[in-house]
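Exercise 3.2. Students should predict the tertiary structure of the chain below and write it as structure tokens, then compare their answer with the key that follows.

Predict this chain's 3D structure.
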Amino acid sequence: MIYLDYVSTTPLNPQVNQSYQALLNDYFANADSLYFLGIQTSSLMEKSRNLIAQMLKVKNSEIIFTSGASESNNTAIKGVAFQYQNRGKHIITSTIEHSSVYNTCLQLRDVFGFDVDFVSVDKNGHINLNELEGLIRDDTILVAMMYVNNEIGSIQPIRDIRKIINKTNPKVKFHVDMVQALGKIPVDLSIVDTASFSAHKIYGLKGSGLLYKNDATTLVPLINGGQQENNLRGGTSNTATHTMFAKTLRLALENNEKKYQYVQSLNSYVRNELNSIDDIIINTPITNSSPYILNFSCIGYKPEVILHALEEKDIYISTKSTCSSHKNDISRTLKAMGVDEEVGQSAMRISFSDMTTHEEVEIFIKELKQILKKVKKQR
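Answer key:
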């Protein structure tokens, strides 16, 4: 099997799996119990929190365990919105956010009466900084932007965004979806107020996420109940899953620069090969983008046909972001970039890992060329 959809999800690291099974068997007690087994279980989870905080260079109190990035995004955005609405009800995000950010902002607008502005992007998927600065108002309470776009890999200048916020209205909270950055490019949490992460994107467990929230930021909780996660997430703690995030993160960060350089070499090879094929246009920008993601279009071909033809060869890619894969329209990201309709309708995405081999990408290119010769263009 040749798997080229690591942006969607990653295989579980065997070391994580082995440790997880042991935790499930031996440390099953409720972490809020007062007897020794419960205290042991709680201690392991808190040790994980401490290690994560050390690796991310933040305080223990600023790490909140969640069920994944979608929950983290919802908790941060709605939590800030409801907490600071006495200051104003204006939120700014971009046109190319992950659905868990984009749709959350739409809900705040349509259901709760918030005013939401969507910053445009250029043809490379990078946000318009001048437009952002012009949109920030006295009643703006939140700016929410992703770090690395999950469809085309464009990297947003979050440090510049922070500077604009500080200059224009320093009271504005800054939330960043860092899911596609963690374990791949450097993450600096000192420039954000909240940030979201997911374990299954870095060879960890599904249903496992993190929310970073600095101590200067207050959130209204979405899930009320017990005192778990500093009163921000009521409910019995998923202790085994939370405990495993620390090991998952440590393994993902090992030899980070070496992995990055290797993946960059894979990306360059595939990009050059795709550029040599007629009817192919690459949508991922060549600069300020993640080498782990490569989005391209086979003009005139239905992406689903190519996807299933590759699947017959045991090669797995994606047609668009998995969260919107069942929709037939053009990707919101590509539409916001202003690509031609024909380009947008034929877009596909491959994503790499340090486990991807040169032989695998060579086979992918070879099979893609053969499929394009066999498959008729859609008229």
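Discussion points: The mean pLDDT is 95. The first strand starts at residue 2 and ends at 3.
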